[in-house]
User: What shape does this take?
Amino acid sequence: MDNYTMMQFFEWYIPADQTLWQKLEHEAMHLSSLGISAVWIPPCSKGTSITDVGYGIYDRYDLGEFDQKGTVATKYGTRDELLAAISALHQCGVGVYADIVMNHLAGADQTQDITVVEVDRMNREHDISSPFCISAWTSFSYPGRKGKYSAFQWSWEHFTATDWDENAKRSGIFRICGDFKHFSENVDHELGNYDYLMYADVDYNHPAVVAETLSWGKWMCDELALDGIRLDAVKHINEDFIELFVKTMKEYVGRPFFAVAEYWKDDLSCLRKYLDSENFFMTLFDVPLHYNFQEAGLRGKDYDLRTIFDGSLVRSNPMNVVTFVDNHDSQRHQSLESYVSSWFKPLAYALILLRKDGYPCLFYGDYYGVLGDDPMPDHRSEIDPLMLARKIAAYGEQIDSFDQQNVISWQRMGDQDHPFSGLAVLLSNNDDACKELSFGTAMASSVWMDITGNITCRVTLSAEGKGKFLVQGSSVSVWVRQQVFQTAKKG
Assistant: This one.
């Protein structure tokens, strides 16, 4: 079986020029040749404005089809352009994972007078007022869509809380009062109870909400011919509902269907508990590993590379994890800013792309560059060789040599299904280094090269299959048999 790799095909600062779906269609063949097996697309439902990245979700059923919020197209394009991009990806054998935003709705059409209790921002279990009335943006009638696809209209009873009082023109966290109204207990316990995140918080204790959301999920699967989903902000959503949603979608689709959830917390025990508590198959993003990468980049030679996987999800749950280097949330000037230093990115990508465990995710911003007021260059020239090595050489038994603080290495011994497979990866966060590694007599006299181009000399293995492999300081080298590179060039 070939190695699977997903790509997050957006970054936060993509311009609002409605051309991303066109670019995705154009790039479909290249992504396939690169070794991308599935693309995670941004939230494709209509947001609060043309500039909305998609997480300020307004109308779940508007994929760029209706004149709402001042635009027909979303930030990324029209519904027809989205469907054309998905079709192109599928024709190239690349799957599509939709970003599913279910925690909240934003940009309501009308206000409603409702009774609320204000809660402490730092402890949502603590009420700081008696019940009082506010004017809340909680009525969603979708006049531009006129009931197409769904006649469901959202009202105050479908939410648990909101954050704005239109009468007083002030913000706060206002828990909505009413029969059976309360924050869900099956959420993260940060800030006392982390059910509320932003906007009008959806109430998954309400039967009508559950039924409507399941119906929308099925519609999305059909409309976009989805191969999987990425679930946003699950630590804020009733865990019982997340389980029901994923189970329902998998059963409805009736074919292999991938589900990965974003539970943003640098706490392995919490992530493991979440996975262990679910009796359905899903995966989580390896947030702790991302923070290890960030720390390694910041500390340079003072970081002990032998500890790079300490506390990571990929080490403890290798079959239930998506590994990543950066994403839209970790970018500069975002609330979860924690981007990985540029010099360490190639090392980090080697650590997720060329090892046997985890489902690695390549970030659009790292591959195509980051735009906006604080742009960052792309790392395409550094990532391409790693992707090629993953595609044709990163197979077989893995042998680790994590024996030095500033230099680590591992080998993949190759397998019979991939001719000339096998590789050696060396990482250094300090000085130039050399390691003697053995591939056994079966590879005696074979010639090896650093596919990254960082080291230009060749290594010829001895009659015993041993060789001395090099790496430059603060760099990564990926050694493959020369035939691999020659075969790839012919292909």
About this structure: The mean pLDDT is 96. The domain at 105-202 is CATH 2.40.30.140 (Elongation Factor Tu (Ef-tu); domain 3). The CA atoms of residues 398 and 412 lie 5 Å apart. DSSP finds eleven helices and 25 strands in the chain.
